[in-house]
UniProtKB/TrEMBL annotation:
InterPro entries: SpoIID/LytB_N. Residues 310-319 have a biased composition (Polar residues). Residues 140-217 form the Sporulation stage II protein D amidase enhancer LytB N-terminal domain. It holds the Pfam family SpoIID. Residues 310-329 are annotated as: Disordered. This is Sporulation stage II protein D amidase enhancer LytB N-terminal domain-containing protein. It comes from the Bacteria.
């Protein structure tokens, strides 16, 4: 932690000092804290660029009024910060841009870089999660309701695939965002995952039959993106009423670098192994495919399915993303457009 008392003058005397000084002056007033982690300060400065104290104050208000973004900033992890901003419907530069800018600033100020690009946090499966509707048992309540809300009328094998995808999606998110599901509630939204008011019996069974199974690549959880995608008939994609087919990836038989990532997420991420189409998954299930085959159809033949790292079950399903395009704004989290226009003007150098 760095004490803010005399840090402002020290920062102002160096190359990137104007940015650092403006942030440090506004920090206590906005955050209510007299100390700041170095990685957190570096990350905020990378988002800010150069500006006045008033602009710094406006930026800090925008960032720290969002609980998930505020928690991500404390970690100093660039991907987590950018992902949180995306979930909260805020425009943001790429994680690589944030990391590169932080590295340049650290070099100019002669200090070690405390911002990281990728998370090294270990997996931690939780029995209970905090949602906007209160605490829920993860496997017995939350997950079956997600399967119901996302693709509840699908074939049983597609429901199992959905359960694995949804489990992977949220567990990976909670791994990289430690406050999510603990102190920051999981939202019920197409921007994240949709859960129903109650679960269908078939979805409870799908979650139970795949209990604990998640999707990994080289031992690390994949993103597990999924969308509705096009309707499938006669073995091919047809109408695309939700306009989400462009995110779906068809990776059957592909491995390693030949697996196509989805443009729904940062394509440079090694855990971006594609995107499942829920309508296609249902069609595959109704035509004899079991859930491991369904998941590998979208995420690649080298997808690892198991309850713990190092296991590879042939009867598991892949992570998924919400049925719609996940670009709808979250109520109450609309960004103050004018602030973010100057905040991210022109991207980062």
């Amino acid at each position: 932690m760095r004490d803010l008392g005399g840090a402002c003058d020290a920062a102002a005397s160096r190359g990137a000092g104007m940015t650092r000084a403006a942030l440090l002056e506004a920090w206590p007033e906005v955050t209510g804290r007299e100390a700041v982690r170095v990685g957190e300060l570096q990350a905020v400065a990378a988002l800010f660029g150069v500006g006045t104290v008033d602009e710094a104050r406006a930026l800090l208000v925008e960032l720290y009024r969002r609980p998930l973004t505020a928690a991500a900033l404390e970690t100093g992890n660039a991907r987590a910060i950018v992902e949180a901003l995306g979930w909260e419907d805020a425009a943001a530069p790429t994680a690589e841009e944030v990391f590169a800018r932080a590295a340049l600033d650290a070099r100019a100020l002669g200090e070690p870089l405390h911002v990281e690009l990728d998370s090294s946090a270990p997996e931690e499966q939780r029995d209970r999660v905090l949602t906007v509707d209160g605490w829920m048992r993860f496997e017995e309540d939350y997950l079956p309701r997600v399967v119901t809300g996302e693709n509840g009328h699908a074939h049983p094998e597609a429901l199992k695939a959905q359960a694995i995808a949804a489990r992977t999606y949220v567990q990976r998110a909670m791994r990289d965002h430690r406050a999510l599901g603990r102190t920051v509630p999981i939202i019920n939204s197409q921007k994240f995952q949709v859960y129903a008011r109650s679960a269908f019996a078939s979805c409870v069974a799908a979650a139970a039959d795949t209990r604990g199974i998640m999707a990994r690549y080289q031992g690390r959880l994949v993103l597990g993106n999924y969308v509705a995608g096009a309707l499938w008939t006669s073995g091919k994609a047809g109408a695309d009423p939700t306009h989400t087919e462009r995110w779906v990836t068809y990776n059957e038989g592909k491995t390693g670098r030949f697996v196509q990532p989805t443009r729904l997420s940062d394509m440079r991420r090694t855990d971006n192994r594609g995107c499942m189409g829920q309508n296609c998954a249902d069609w595959l299930a109704r035509n004899g495919r079991r859930y491991p085959e369904i998941l590998r159809f979208f995420y690649g033949a080298d997808l690892e399915l198991g309850a713990t790292v190092g296991t590879n079950s042939t009867s598991t399903t892949l992570p998924t993303k919400p049925a719609a395009e996940r670009s709808d704004p979250i109520p109450g989290l609309a960004v103050a457009g004018a602030v973010f226009q100057w905040l991210f003007r022109g991207g980062l150098p």
